[in-house]
Amino acid sequence: MSVKSFKFVSPGVFINEIDNSFVPKSADAIGPVIIGRSTRGLAMQPVKVESYSDFVTMFGDTVPGSGGGDVYRDGNYQSPMYGTYAAKAFLRANVAPVTYVRLLGQQDSNGTSGGVAGWQTTQSPATLDDTANFDNGGAFGMWIFTSASMAIGAQPGSGTLAAIFYAETSASFQLTGTVAGSDGSLTGSCYGVLINSDSSNNYTLVLSESLNGTQEVAFNFDDTSELFIRKAFNTNPQLTSTGGTFYPSASAKRYWLGETFEQSVRDASLVGAATTATIVPIALSASTTSGPHAMRQASREAVAGWFIGQDLGHSSSFNPELSQKLFRLKGRGHGEWLHKNCKVSIAKIRKTTSTSTDYGTFSVLIRSLSDTDNKVSVLERFDNCTLDPTSPNFVARKIGDKYNSWNSTERALKTYGEYTNNSKFVYVEMNSDVEAGATDPLLLPFGYFGPPRPRHVLHISSSIPNSASYLGTPCSGTIGSASDGGATADLFNIPIRAFSSTAGTPALGYATGSLSFPEVRLRVSASDGGLTDATKAYFGMQTTRTATSTTHDVSVGDFHRLWLPTSLMPDDPTTYATKHPSALAGICAYGYVFSMNDISASAGAQYSYKSGSRRGVNSDGHNGAVTDSTLLNAGYDSFTAPFWGGFDGWNILNPDPVYNASLASGTDTNNYGFYTWKRAIDTVSDPEFVDMNLLVAPGLTHDALTGHMIDVCEERADSLAMIDLASVYIPSHEAYKSSKADRIAADPTQRAIDLKDRQIDSSYGCTFYPWVQTRDANTGQMLWIPPSVAMMGVLASSQAKSDVWFAPAGFNRGGLTDGAAGIPVTGVTERLTSKNRDTLYESNINPIASFPSSGIVVFGQKTLQERQSALDRINVRRLVIFLKKQISILSTQVLFEQNVQSTWNRFKSLIEPFLANVKTRFGITDYRLILDESTTTPDLIDQNILYAKIMIKPARAIEFIAIDFVIASTGASFDD
Known about the structure:
Elements: E1 32-36, E2 47-49, H1 52-59, H2 71-74, H3 82-91, E3 98-102, E4 119-120, E5 136-145, E6 157-169, E7 171-178, E8 187-190, E9 195-196, E10 203-209, E11 213-219, H4 229-232, E12 255-260, H5 262-267, E13 276-282, E14 294-295, E15 303-309, E16 325-331, H6 337-341, E17 342-350, E18 361-368, E19 378-385, H7 395-399, E20 403-407, E21 412-416, E22 426-430, H8 432-435, E23 445-449, E24 453-454, E25 513-516, E26 539-540, H9 556-559, E27 587-588, E28 593-595, E29 599-601, E30 607-609, H10 628-633, E31 639-642, H11 672-683, E32 694-696, H12 703-716, E33 720-723, H13 748-758, E34 765-769, E35 772-775, E36 782-785, H14 787-801, H15 810-813, E37 825-828, H16 834-842, E38 846-851, E39 855-858, H17 874-891, H18 901-920, E40 924-930, H19 938-942, E41 949-954
Parallel strand pairs: 1-3, 1-32, 6-25, 26-31, 32-33, 33-34, 34-38
Antiparallel strand pairs: 2-3, 4-14, 5-6, 5-13, 6-12, 7-8, 7-10, 9-13, 10-11, 15-16, 15-23, 16-22, 17-18, 17-31, 18-19, 20-21, 23-28, 24-27, 29-30, 35-36, 35-37, 38-39, 40-41
Helix pairs in contact: 3-14, 11-12, 13-16, 17-18
């Protein structure tokens, strides 16, 4: 510091401390991009992860495949998710972060019908009408009625949808038993007819399949019983694929059980009771071209809300549907995982106590769907939120409102919104009036719009058709009430068929009643669940088995699935003027609207909820006397809302929805899997958007897509694409093979020929052969993984042991048996001979060899460059990538400085020590940096250009060792 900085007044010694020991911040470590599937996490966007524990938190653990279980409800774990293993292998070395791009099904906006994402059952729609046999595929609902014994012409009452079956063509469902309303002697197997449960309160379904013939299956809805419906029937949609495609033909089915709504069935006291039921098709029309069985669309985000404000004093005319919308929460990219695993609570609702603002506060909690109010599990929380747009605690600012959208023209992700996302799960969408500060500041979140659902069918009666062949007709007559319809168009087509063969002489009448679609239970009483402190109750959605239970109900996630694709149900159904507009094709825009204004106190100050209480329409002790202030002051300040409508965009009929065989002849427009992979690759094509030095899509072997990976890396010029070759090994999710020997697709010679035919000539790509075997750490399960997975670990461990420019091969750094892969490697699909290794290496395929005494080792490190140069080796390519990236980062320190000699000297002082350090660490053997008037000439200075030349001599790895053994005679002299 200058002496002028000291203050001298009287004589003395003056000392100032100057700390020049600060260590300058080094550039962030740069790691790979991995593209693949995972069980959860933000999808179709790059997410940087620093450690494997963070990866598990965000994306879930490794998935070895063959998960079995209830695939439709619990998720598809039938194929390995190789990307999760690649992330684990690399992150174990702790040398750099991983950027992961999770896949969810996408589709091109200009795609053909064959390029649509999602799934659909196969069926013959032209014959699915009121005279069909219902064996032509689609969705079939089972409704249960409380009336177990009806007289002729009696009304069965309201039926509760208990289950949905999905069928391919040539599968049919018929309940068998005593026909309701008969004299007891009328029995048989019937479509669409009301059948009584048996003496044990079970049902029997006659299941007819073209593959397995006809069988009778007894079942019930008691989840503690061995006959529970989800135990009795197939819940794996993949078994409906053509026999022998993924599973043995003997395992094939033509149907699966989809949603079951145990909570509704339990609440209606239909479990273990004498009931009656019917099974009928669910579709928007007789043609069945749309319905729950036709979920053809790209991935969709689950949403919660809209959250609405309280009634500000007009209780007599209060209608929650007209309440002010405040905000809603939308998933950030989790697909259907969000609504199957999370819910949102608004808690600690407080009116203002300050004279400086009229805005109150509240908390937003993202909770586990499986928790209960007795034992709350909070995944994220945001306290002291407000609706004041000028406040630092504005809810959009606290949680974040930014979201990504794919721009198909620029083939890039675009980010919109003002506030950085602080939630891993959701972002906030504000009502425009609230965001503009144009609403009453006294408003607080006090309720929410419930999820949409199909309209209840409120009238299924008709005159007896000719030949007395129907108990009812399709729903084309007078339907509905003020609360759920009134329109006759776009209703779910539910024909009710009569018994078709007589076992007596019935006097058939016709049934009248209604068919209701399920909604999750709302908490009625604050004391439900045995809460010791009733004020800890969260009103709104209740996820327990019964109203008084403290156990989670696993069926709740089924209530909030997407009923219809987005083409028939928009992102925000509540934008329609009414609850049930005809434009929504049989869907109610919202099944219910919950408001805490409908919570009131009965005798004994017991707080409970009933819709309509606020405006005094109930006569059971509920009334609108409790104001919002009274309610909040009493401690009842929390409620819970569901997420709903998430969709992954996958074809659930395939174990791996983007398996390579399905990509054959794929393009952006005709194949959603191809488009999904390509879009993920294009997402990381911009070096200013994503920093990476390696790109890998483990298990992807499609030539066009792996070639695209190399093209992207070459254009970026700062990354190496590690690709897997086609037809090396055929895993079970690609095709069923009765013999494991058939999974080895071709020999090394053929793979070398195939790669030569592709005519790849790039130092920005590399590949390895063959597949290797690993052991899943969580299950102990053995599985075969593509070589790119193991090589992720080798590259990371090699860098950790030495540096990025050392060859990731050989016994020192490429010993897979010794743990170089980061995950255990126990075998190879094919043991390579010396001749095999020569054939592969000559074609730029790096062999992974297995030696009896030394174990499994990586025995090559070539890039895919045909021309001989230093860059035809991985270690040199990785070195140059490293140097270019680091020097580029250092160079930014002189950007926009004056283009003069002192700046040149500063530039050299930054770069030369860095190059010298790399030289001492054996990355280069020599270098030279030229920056003077010979490079940055006056005309370049006039163009604002600093031009430097850096020349390096890369250190080469030893790949061949030649030794002469000279056998000398006894009298020979070694000095010669």
